[in-house]
């Protein structure tokens, strides 16, 4: 028998404004392939919760300015952006940026 493909389980914390897509759940687990990136996690999340990617990415597939995403405890903008690796057990937090400044 062949090996099963490696799967990473990533936990995503969903902010209140996006919970309409998750049925009110604040935390959603998604499964992505081994070697997946943050972009893959967002796509997998959107597959299970259609529309949620639009709250994180704009129509060009870039991250929205008013949304901060943390991979474990690191701001993805200071890591590798949407290419930030998300190995098994990664915790992703989507946090709306506070308006003003």
Question: How many helices?
Answer: 1
Question: Structural class of the helices, strands and pairings?
Answer: alpha+beta
Q: Could you give the distance between the termini?
A: 58 Å
Largest sheet: 5 strands, mixed
Total beta-strand segments: 5
Principal-axes geometry comes out as globular
Which band does the percent of strand residues land in? 25-35%
The helix content, as a percent range, equals 10-25%
Q: How much is the radius of gyration in Å?
A: 13 Å
Largest sheet, spatial ordering of strands: 2-1-5-3-4
This entry's quaternary arrangement is single chain
Let me know the average pLDDT: 91
Topology pattern, helix = H, strand = E: EEHEEE
Low-confidence parts? none
Walk me through this protein's architecture.
The protein has one helix at 38-48, and strands spanning 7-13, 27-33, 67-71, 74-75, 91-96. With 101 residues, the chain is of the alpha+beta class. The protein has a 5-stranded mixed sheet, covered by helices on one side. A hairpin with a 2-residue loop joins strand 3 (67-71) and strand 4 (74-75). The termini are far apart.
Features:
101 residues, alpha+beta, 11% helix, 27% strand
List the helices and strands and how they pair.
Blueprint: E1 7-13, E2 27-33, H1 38-48, E3 67-71, E4 74-75, E5 91-96
Parallel strand pairs: 1-5
Antiparallel strand pairs: 1-2, 3-4, 3-5
